[in-house]
Amino acid sequence: MNRNIDDDRFPEWRPFVDAVQQRRPDAGTWCEAWTVRDIVVHQAGNAEEIARVLAAALEGEPVGTRGFEEREGPLRALSDADLWDALFDRMATLNGVAAAADDVPPDIDVAWTGRTMKVPWFAEHMREELVLHGWDITGDDAAAQARLAEPWMTTHSVLAVGKPLLAKGARQLAQGEHVEARLRAAGSDDVVVRAEADRTAIELAEPEGPATLETDPAARVLLLWGRRPADPSRICSRVGPQTLGRVRGLLGGY
């Protein structure tokens, strides 16, 4: 089996593998009802689908993105050992496709899950999945926080994933209800979110005026993905519980 996975291309791969190996497959995680095994299923499906869609685009024959159940269902039927092999196999395939994409102009748009992403964002998206779901397994250890705090994690979350990250929370808004917030982390641009029941927007902007909430870069990424750090004091706000509650409700992640 080809297991060539480039640590330079996917530097978050080895920490993710180490995190999984330190826990039982049936151990719980910070990702709601998912166990470690559920996360491995999800990651194998992610790697397979990212590689499939990107490879088809590189060949000039684009394909649609399959839903989670279609790509994860067969993986759930595997034994733990076969699932582990499948994860490595699919990551190695993605590694090869991502290497081939190095020769493609980076500004080409490729359809992905109701939006488009630039070609380099596909490998970057897998990297983000490894960071986020690695945190789901380990929680707030220092290494996981450092990976979450990398500036590219915020940029990718906003530019490449922002639209679906707000969709779940926006569905809970009543017609005519409007939510707008500035999420601030020292030394970086604000993340500005706006949402109504039928539309959302998310962007990076220079800090201006009061922030809706202030936190560190790692916790802000967790908030964007519908998660929260174990220590609630990392999130500070003076807007009051009603406004802050509406913002936190909007940040529901997938």
Automatic annotation (TrEMBL):
Listed Gene3D superfamilies: dinb family like domain (1.20.120.450)
Residue ranges of domain Mycothiol-dependent maleylpyruvate isomerase metal-binding in the record: 12-137
UniProt-listed InterPro entries: DinB/YfiT-like, MDMPI_metal-binding
Domain of life, per lineage: Bacteria
GO molecular function, one term: metal ion binding
Name of this protein: Mycothiol-dependent maleylpyruvate isomerase metal-binding domain-containing protein
Species of provenance: Mycobacterium paraffinicum
